Structures are given as structure tokens and as C-alpha cells.
Sequence to fold (405 residues):
Amino acid sequence: MAADPKTRFLVVDDFSTMRRIVRNLLKELGFTNVDEAEDGAIALQKLQGGGFEFVVTDWNMPNMDGLTLLQTIRATPNLKHLPVLMITAEAKKENIIAAAQAGASGYIVKPFTAGTLSEKLNKIFEKYGQA
Amino acid sequence: MSASNDSSDLEALFDSIASDYQPATPAAPVPPPAPGKNDGDNDELQALFDSVAAESPAAVAGGDQVQGDAWPQQEAVFNRIGHMARTLHDTLGQLGYDKLIEKTVSALPDAKDRLAYVANLTEQAACRVLNATDIAGPLVDDIAAGSKRLGDSWDRVFANQMSPEEFRKLAIETRQFFNQQLPEKTQATHAQLTEIMMAQDFQDLTGQVIKKIVVLAQELESGLMGLLIEVLPDAKRTEEVTSLMNGPVVNAQGRTDVVVNQEQVDDLLDSLGF
Fold:
């Protein structure tokens, strides 16, 4: 998968401000095809609807948290290939390890910069391009 | 006898003793009321009581033979329990825990309102700033695009690729760009920068509110800490709360279980081969 500007993103965060910031940053990086979900359960519904190629998710959310969302995505045959980038305030080492073990494609701790997001996205695109 | 909380056992014990000893000592019902009045029951007291309760049947069973000797012992125990209950109650009062609890009950709804106010103001500020950047972004993009268009045209002038008629048009366009479009758009952008600056006024208000809550939290913490240290056994104090949803690390100093920046995240993942 190359860094296609038409890549369809799903941004999952319970705070509208954070969703808006991530959406704006993605727009600046040239990705305008972005949808939002306010928790893991809604995200999963949208993902099941199909058409998404990239998931950016928070961890701590009501109804379904980001780790559960990630685990569910990895356990669902038609979704498990999706890149999942976690952007979260959870900064304990065991969090990072748990996310990596669950198959996260990248892990960004809040507060983060536009540069970090760009770097991680590129890294993930590269990795998926090789695969 | 005014029984409260756990005192049904105590009452039963008391009754059995009282009925056994009534003929010998009519005044027997008097000592126990103290433990009965103990509303602020605690584990220590309960443990002591249990041990007394376990011992006493033997004392009661043997009581027929040694009536005269057994009663003063019982009375001493009951007196001690009474004293302990009294001391506990007084200590709690002196340490201000009763006031603390009272204050907490009234202060927490207030703190809740204050925090809701902070959440509200910060959200509004975030919205204002994001709106402003949404407006200012296209303005700056327009300026950049206009400059580039004119710059490219002027490059053609210097490359002698432009007719006098085109040059005349470019001169007019350039003049208009500098006299109208640029000032208009920079002014509009400046207005949005001012809007972003003004959106920060929440900091003053939330700062004041948060400081008050911090003071409240400190009072609560020190009070509850004192209470916990007195009540909790040593072993329980060191048990750590483990969870994967802790939110932002507010103070990472001296902690080795958290990362403080993205670099550390990347290093950790690299070191694990992810």
C-alpha cells in the first residue's frame, strides 16, 4: 500500500477536539478522505461497513476502548489487514507492550506533534508497501 | 439497651451473662452499654470483641462454680471495650475526620461543578481555536497561491517571454494584489490570530478554579491518608493499582514504568523487535 492521498481513514477518539486535530493534521499531510467515530463500538460498526484503509485510534474511550478495538480488528478476517495507529495518553510501558503484542501498527503518545504523526504514517505505509 | 451496628452478638453475650449473674450482682447490666453505643465501629474493636466472645462461653459455663471470681474479669473487659470505643470516637473527632467527612460531602458536588466548568471552558477554547485556524488556513493558502502566480508571471517577464499587453495586465494585477488582496487577507488572518489569542482567556479562569480544587484535593488526601495509615495493615498499603487505562502521566518523576516522550516509545518498541 502506497501513501495514496485517497486512503480512507477512520479517526477514533471520544473527544471531538482530538478528532478534529487529527483530521486537520491528516488534511495537511494530504489525506482528505477521513471519517470519525467516537468510540470503539461505533468504529467497529463503520469498519464493518467497509471501505476503510487506515485506523487511527485513541485508547481510553467509553463503550469499547482502543485496545479492544485493535484486538477485535485483528481477530476479524475481513479487517485484520488494516493498519491501526494508536494515538493515546497512556504512557505506561506495559501499555505500549500490550498494544504492540495486540498488533498495533504504530504507537504515538499524546501530546504529539504533526511531525511525529507524519513520520509514523510514512513508516506504516512503507511497511505495508513492502508486505 | 440501645443496640447499634454489630452489637446483636454483644447483646446476646451480655444477656447470657446478665441472666446468669443477675441473682448475684443486680448491677450487672450497667457496664456493657458503652460498647453498645459505639457507632464508629472498627476492625480492632470487632476483633477484640470476637476474642472476648470466644472466651466467654467457657467463663459462663464454669460460672456456676466460680461466680464470684469471674465477674470482675468480665467487667474489666467490658470497661476496656468501652474505653476503646470512647477513645476511637474522641480521636476521630480530634483529628477532624468527622469534620473532614462532613466537608467532603459538601465540597465534592462543588468540585464536580467546578471541574465541569473547566471542561466546558477548555472545550469552547479548543473549538474557537480550531475554527480560527479553519478560517485562517485558506486565507494564507490564497496569499501563497497569488504570490506564486504573480512570481511565475514576473519570471516570464525577466525571461522576455511576455508581450507588452500581457505585461500591462500583469502590472495592474500586481498593483491590485499588493494594494487590495494582500492587505485584506493579512488583516483577516490577523483577526483570526487575535481570536486564537483571545481564546486563551480560559486559562485565567480555569487556573483559579483548578487551584481551588487542588487545595481541596490536598486536604482530602492528607485527611484520608491519615485515616488509612491508622486503619490499614502494613501489607495492604503497598498493593499497587494496576490498570491499562490511567490517562496522561501527570508526574513522571522517579517513575520507571512510564515513558515521557515519543522517542522512548520508539526505543521500547525497537528493543522488543516490533
